[in-house]
Specification:
Length: about 675
């Protein structure tokens, strides 16, 4: 949601308590230097013991992978897929390469229980939610580092990596506060990149309708004890309808250095997106434009032998310029919106094995800061907007969160129990300490069947948009408190070499949920901690490897489906809800992979969605009434030739040119054809 004044006759004047200097603030203004990096380096130097690091055995994911032995980030201590006492969805590299998807957002459209509502194609902007939660309630991580944006969940998927550089994606459905910290309210998505154990060069170039150009260049270099991966991508199009053009640039580096003390992992990336934002935030003014810049860096080290330590330091900066009028602004238009967020965090995760199981404990401190001309409290002195001539930030806000974690996992024959808690404190408004516990249980009935049950509590802090957004029809609330939920779930999984299936049911009670509400159509939309929502849902997933089931290669290679159902009840509240009940009720995805001829294959994705809620329908920028979301089917197809070094492919998104609405009045693309080639050079040692 963006800030603007669309009424030329009405001026909104808001007065907030001025932000003053507080002892816990890491930043007072952009121009001031913060020497926390020096402290972090000193901490790392002192904390590292002088003994070699016993590195956890890693399994390379390829066409012969063993999913059970993949290490996933679903507990505080390292655990393989087979050890985790919860259902975790893992999308591997082979699935990514065969999918008819052009971006991470496209790929997540097919994931179980995940709701992706795209405003712009090819990763321009999308809201992601899990199990009927809102777009602010899902935590996004890159290689285990929190990348969520404190301004708004609209920016959570502004990542510095391209889909073609992803090794796998791990999706933990359900609350995950005791694993990942605050804001893992309804789920968490961890995007994993990893340098290969070889010297490689990859070139992937695609072109398509609407002047689409998608170029990705990547290389992996091994030099002594340093393993480096670097990638650059550029994607652009003139748009599938008026004011939907875009151009993006991504640059990403990931390194791993083996030292006597342990493995040092570091990554740095930058993303730049500029795009026409047709009706993104209001259909009354469709000629919107936006540009975002994201810079991210982190360093993490694993050390210790009997007692393992993994300290990490990370930083994320996000800058956003939003234009309500891309050109020919109205006479009353006061100017563009400018925002800049800086997030600096430091955490420590420790764990050890004993006869009683695996014990983990740790802590995290995270500083979230914003400078804006719309969001925050009035500053004493304005400061210049970086890169924007003559523009100033007039508002700011900072907050610090501190979290402590503890978890223990028991392994007793076929029974696994993982119990833990997160204790959290937020500097804003002197919030007290709160504890969010949870327990996950599983029992291996036999070699194929495993039963699961869990109960977890979670929380989410309000975003700066929730706190400060102001417009003629909306009013933020700077006194919002965090929202809370308790989730109970149970299910079972069946897995053998050729079939992987699971089913589960969950029940979530959310209290003090943050939502934009109003008493009637005559009132403003306001953010309040009023909504109590009870959610019930079910998930079912089946994946069949036909080749392994039959024992020989046949026409059909893979066949699978996943289905999720969610229903929500807000009780007897008299308030109208704007977002909290606008969720997917039914989602069905069927996927089919088959051979065509020799090394030519096809991958089909059939997707059905039925969404609750409604939207204010506009035609020619004029309001024409309330409209419900209609259910729809979409079909995507990728046909590709694959050899050891190359892949040539043709992709058809929305093959049957379905016209549909998935997010208000945002125009969705029809059929979109593209073709490309990927070539890999493997430099032998």
């Amino acid at each position: 949601m963006k800030m603007f004044n669309e009424n030329p006759k009405r001026a909104e004047v808001l007065t907030f308590r001025r932000w003053g200097g507080r002892s816990y603030s890491l930043f007072q203004a952009i121009r001031k230097q913060v020497h926390i990096a020096t402290l972090a380096i000193a901490y790392l130097y002192v904390a590292l013991p002088n003994e070699s690091f016993a590195q956890t055995e890693r399994v390379e994911v390829n066409m012969e992978y063993d999913l059970d032995e993949i290490e996933v980030s679903a507990q505080r201590a390292p655990a393989t897929y087979s050890q985790v006492a919860r259902i975790v969805s893992v999308i591997e590299r082979e699935q990514i390469e065969s999918a008819p998807a052009g971006s991470i957002q496209d790929l997540l459209e097919y994931a179980l229980g995940v709701d992706i509502r795209q405003r712009g194609t090819y990763g321009i902007q999308a809201d992601v939610s899990v199990r009927g939660g809102s777009f602010d309630q899902t935590l996004i991580l890159l290689n285990g580092i929190n990348l969520s944006d404190p301004q708004t969940g609209h920016h959570n998927l502004n990542l510095p990596v391209n889909l073609k550089n992803i090794k796998r994606i791990e999706i933990l459905n359900g609350p995950s506060a005791r694993v990942y910290g605050p804001n893992a309210f309804s789920g968490a998505i961890n995007i994993v990149t990893e340098a290969a154990d070889a010297n490689l060069f990859d070139l992937d170039v695609a072109f398509g309708e609407h002047q689409l150009r998608d170029v990705n260049v990547a290389a992996n270099v091994q030099h002594g004890k340093l393993n480096s991966f670097v990638a650059f991508s550029n994607t652009s199009s003139d748009g599938y309808s008026a004011n939907t053009d875009f151009e993006t640039y991504n640059l990403f580096y990931q390194g791993n250095l083996k030292t006597g003390a342990g493995d040092l992992d570091f990554q740095i990336g930058h993303s730049n997106k500029a795009f026409g934002a047709n009706s993104f935030y209001t259909p009354a003014y469709p000629n919107q434009f936006e540009e975002t810049k994201t810079t991210f860096a982190s360093v993490k080290m694993g050390t210790g032998k009997a007692l393992h330590f993994t300290p990490a330091l990370y930083w994320r900066r996000h800058q956003d310029r939003f234009e309500l009028f891309r050109d020919e602004p109205a006479s009353w238009y006061a100017g563009h919106n400018y925002h800049l967020t800086d997030v600096l965090g430091m955490n420590l995760n420790s764990w050890f094995n004993s006869a009683l199981g695996k014990t983990a404990f740790g802590a995290e401190i995270r500083s979230e800061n914003i400078w804006s001309n719309k969001l925050g409290e009035l500053m004493t002195e304005p400061i210049a907007v970086p890169g924007e001539d003559g523009q100033e930030f007039t508002r700011s806000h900072s907050r610090t969160t501190v979290s402590y974690f503890a978890e223990h996992t028991f392994y007793i024959n076929r029974f696994t129990a993982s119990a833990g808690a997160m204790a959290n404190w937020i500097s804003d408004r002197n919030f007290e300490w709160n504890v969010y516990p949870g327990i996950d249980l599983s029992y291996q009935l036999n070699d194929q069947f495993k039963a699961y049950a869990s109960i977890n509590k979670s929380m989410r802090m309000p975003t700066y948009t929730d706190l400060y957004y102001s417009a003629p029809t909306n009013q933020g609330n700077p006194d919002l408190k965090p929202e809370h939920s308790t989730t109970l779930e149970g299910g079972a999984r069946f897995k053998n070499p050729w079939l992987n299936a699971h089913a589960l049911y969950y029940h979530r009670v959310g209290k003090g949920l943050i939502d934009w509400v109003r008493e009637s159509e005559e009132y403003l939309w306001e953010t309040r901690n009023l909504t109590k929502i009870v959610s019930d849902g079910a998930e079912l997933s089946v994946d069949l490897d036909v080749t392994k089931a039959i024992g020989k290669k046949v026409f059909l290679r893979h066949l699978g489906a996943n289905y999720s159902f969610n229903t929500q009840d807000k009780g007897s509240s008299n308030y109208l809800s704007n977002y909290a009940l606008d969720n997917l009720k039914h989602k069905l995805v069927i996927h089919l992979d088959h051979a065509i001829w020799k090394n030519v294959f096809a991958s089909w994705k059939f997707r059905f969605q039925d969404r609750n809620g409604s939207y204010e329908r506009f035609e020619n920028a004029q309001y024409v009434g309330e409209a419900s979301y209609d259910p729809f089917w979409l079909t995507d197809l990728k046909v590709y030739y694959r050899s050891e070094a190359a892949q040539v492919y043709v992709t058809a998104s929305n093959l049957f040119d379905q016209r549909y609405v998935d997010l208000g009045n945002v125009v969705q693309p029809g059929r979109w054809l593209s073709c490309g080639i990927k070539y890999r050079i493997n430099f032998k040692k």
